[in-house]
Specification:
This is Peptide/nickel transport system substrate-binding protein. With 502 residues, the protein is an alpha+beta fold. The protein is built from 14 helices and 22 strands. The strands form five sheets. Strands 1-13-20-12-2-11-10-9 form an eight-stranded mixed beta sheet, sandwiched between helices. A hairpin with a 5-residue loop joins β3 and β4.
């Protein structure tokens, strides 16, 4: 049996108090080199790791996905649901010494909406404007009564508050030297080398435990991350794959902890983003043929030892919002060939962009072999993840293999990717009926109605297939036995507060 620490029993004993004996340096192996460390524009999941240490949010979520206070101590929703009043934590400063107050929060939220290239805009569509009531009180005035959705989004990058002074001074270069109000301040970044942060002496939570210095080390190959963990060069290694785990079974110096994952792995198909969308976007039968040629269950069994869950929707099959009338499809090569002939492309050829990460490389090769049996040639082109996603935004792709780390509210898994104006809708897929459903789902707090709406949205996406969702992970993290206080989260983000080194 693998040495897994289940989420329910992972609360490890904590060590020394903040400011006590020196904690030294914690080295964390992350899956890839992040894009810009700007909460407004950051897209890669690996960027959330250092950003979470550098930038406190208005709220966080617990391992049970409940909202918990961080920079905002409390909130009150107006009786009509059209505003939310936040009370901010007193005595908080940014790493440049400037006060973290209501005006700074107002500035940040406005920046998230207006900054060129912001990926947070769709997460704040409910917000009309923010009003400063007093230095520690802010009123969020809403366009529609969507307070629950707005609040959960403020527990993600949309709620990371930045220093207005540093933002105005650095402009578009803020992501090269972020200044926030988290427990660690940014020190340096060596591209493809490391991101270094050090504990901020004036952090508001003086009792917080944590190492003095953290180095985030981008290591794409999980085998190399494991070797570095076992040798002691790393103390934490994220995103291990199921096939990595046997190597750690007999190692007395490493534990493996896991948590269910909120997200999904997905092949995005270009349906309408420039000339590269002409082939896969012209006839839904082409996308349906590709879909039917893939055996998700066989892939999960062969590559991931059934530790992941085969899926085909933006929530996993155990989620109440899953559309049970469109389950994970059975593979049907004959039907795939018939659809291709009917669409006029019996010998379909297209190119899939895939990052160098071993898990997606192996899955891409597995899918390539399955598609070939249906007469489909899928060429593979390896690109660094950040480059691949840039090409996705520009429409320079036919298909790309990415993953979404997931959000507690289903809206976070679907709106930004599939609504007509979604900032991460690289396919430029647009369906007015789907948009109407997604907006209604944002507006209701009735769980039964929201479930009905998301099942309707799933039904549309399962038919039109602007992307092929393939599986839902468990997150596996390797942790040195020197580490105390590490708790895995369903959003895959490493919270460094509370971690100590023995």
């Amino acid at each position: 049996m693998h040495k897994l620490r289940l989420l329910a029993v992972i609360a490890l004993a904590t060590g020394w108090a903040f400011g006590a004996a020196a904690q030294g340096t914690l080295r964390i192996g992350i899956n890839e080199d992040p894009d810009a460390l700007d909460p407004a524009t950051n897209r890669l999941a690996s960027g959330r790791q250092p950003l979470t240490a550098i930038c406190d949010k208005l709220f966080d979520v617990s391992t049970d996905l409940d909202l918990v206070p961080q920079l905002a101590e409390s909130y009150v929703v107006a009786p009509d649901g059209m505003s939310v009043t936040l009370k901010l934590r007193p005595g908080v400063t940014f790493h440049d010494g400037e006060p973290m107050n209501a005006e700074a929060v107002r500035f940040t939220l406005e920046r998230n909406v207006t900054r060129t290239g912001s990926l947070r805009r769709s997460e704040l569509t409910a917000l009309d404007h923010a009003e400063v009531v007093d230095p520690l009180t802010l009123r969020l005035v809403l366009k529609e009564p969507q307070s629950s959705l707005l609040l959960i989004n403020l527990a993600e990058r949309a709620g990371m508050i930045v220093s207005p002074k540093a933002s105005e001074a650095l402009g578009d270069r803020f992501g090269t030297a972020p200044v926030c109000a988290g427990p660690y301040r940014f020190v340096e970044r060596v591209p493809q080398g490391r991101i270094v942060v050090e504990r901020y002496a004036n952090y508001w939570d003086r009792a917080m435990q944590g190492p003095d210095r953290i180095e985030y080390m981008p290591i794409t190959d999980s085998t190399v991350r494991i070797s570095a963990l076992r040798s002691g060069e790393l103390q934490i290694a994220e995103r291990l794959t199921p096939t990595d785990l046997p190597q750690l079974d007999a190692d007395p110096n490493v534990n493996v902890v896991s948590a269910p994952d909120l997200g999904y792995h997905v092949i995005r198909l270009n349906t309408n983003n420039g000339p590269h969308g002409a082939l896969l976007g012209r006839d839904v039968r082409i996308r349906q043929a590709i879909n039917l040629a893939i055996d998700r269950n066989a892939m999960v069994h062969a590559l991931f030892e059934d530790k992941y869950t085969a899926g085909n929707q933006f929530v996993n099959p155990s989620n109440p919002n899953y559309d049970t009338s469109h389950p994970v499809p059975e593979r049907d090569v004959a039907a795939s060939r018939r659809l291709l002939r009917a669409a006029g492309v019996p010998n379909l050829t297209f190119t899939l962009l895939v990052p160098p990460e071993r898990e997606r490389q192996e899955a891409a090769q597995f899918i390539q072999a399955m598609l070939s049996e249906a007469g489909i040639t899928m060429n593979l082109e390896t690109q660094e993840n950040a480059t691949m996603l840039q090409n996705g935004r520009r429409g320079q792709f036919e298909a790309l293999f990415t993953f979404w780390s997931g959000r507690p509210h289903p809206d976070g898994n679907v709106f930004t990717h599939y609504s007509c104006t979604g900032p991460q809708n690289d396919s430029k897929y647009c369906n007015a009926a789907l948009d109407e459903i997604l907006v209604k789902a944002r507006q209701t707090d009735d769980a039964a109605e929201r479930q009905r709406l998301y099942r309707s949205a799933n039904a549309i996406l399962a038919e039109e297939l602007p992307s092929l969702i393939l599986w839902h992970r468990r997150t596996f993290t390797g942790v040195s036995t020197r580490v105390r206080g590490f708790v895995p989260h369903p959003d895959s983000t490493i919270r460094v507060r509370g971690i100590t080194l023995q």
